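User: Okay, second chain of the day. Same drill as before: sequence in, structure tokens out.
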Amino acid sequence: MLGVVGWVSGLVNAFPDENRLLWDLATRGNYDEALQIYRWYTPLLHLDTHPKLVQYIKLAMAETGLGSEMVRAPRMPLVGQEREEILRVIRRAIKTRPAK
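Assistant: Same drill. Structure tokens below.
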């Protein structure tokens, strides 16, 4: 839609099928369908813009069964309210995933 020839996002690691679906729809010119997927994906993509993006992405990977949330120093694991808030975003997305 914007003339891009590629896409980079850490959330691809947790949601590869949805990422591919978005890409395929957009490159085929199915913009209305792509926009629906993008709107679903947007709260997740915003996790990739935070200083703790590594922890957020790894938590998403763990929740989707595609990795571990373990991080190495100097990064610290997510705890408490912050972890719960990020889990809400991730779990909402998992619950409302687009059909493959």
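DSSP finds four helices and no strands in the chain.

User: Thanks, on to the next one.
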